[in-house]
Amino acid sequence: MKLGAFSVSLTVKDIHTSKSFYENLGFEIFGGDITQNWLIMKNENCIIGLFQGMFDKNILTFNPGWNENAENLGSFTDIRELQKQLKTKGITMHAEADESSEGPAHFIIEDPDGNQILVDQHV
């Protein structure tokens, strides 16, 4: 199963403090908008999202259709197909993609320890 680019979405208390901390670790701003309290930062092929006031806890994120540079892939498994495959394996969806739609969509699952996993397709 190919889930696409991987990143960790971190819920942070102060976006400016977190930005400075991760810059000290060699991360650079890759996307986002600090005035809206979110940034995507990158260090080589490691990607983290910093989100202030948007989520209750940290989230593992996968982006079908993208590589680690947020570039569209020529070939990938559509999110609706991934969702169907996971459902047949008995995995419960906490939010579902509309299987009759096309293009951008997302679903959310949780691992056995309650860690949220967002699968978010942008193409």
Write the SSE topology:
Layout: E1 5-12, H1 15-24, E2 28-33, E3 38-43, E4 46-52, E5 59-63, H2 79-88, E6 105-110, E7 116-121
Parallel strand pairs: 1-4, 5-7
Antiparallel strand pairs: 1-5, 2-3, 3-4, 6-7
Biggest sheet statistics: 7 strands, mixed
Question: What letter string, H or E per element, gives the SSE order?
Answer: EHEEEEHEE
Q: What is the radius of gyration?
A: 15 Å
N-to-C terminal Cα separation, in Å?
18 Å
- The CATH architecture designation is Roll
Q: Give the tally of β-strands.
A: 7
Which descriptor suits the 3D outline?
globular
CATH topology: 2,3-Dihydroxybiphenyl 1,2-Dioxygenase, domain 1
Brief write-up:
The chain is of the alpha/beta class and 123 residues long. It is built from two helices and seven strands. The chain has one domain: Roll (2,3-Dihydroxybiphenyl 1,2-Dioxygenase, domain 1).
Defining traits:
16% helix; seven-stranded mixed sheet; 36% strand; 2,3-Dihydroxybiphenyl 1,2-Dioxygenase, domain 1; single chain; 2 helices; Glyas_Bleomycin-R_OHBP_Dase; 123 residues; alpha/beta; Glyoxalase
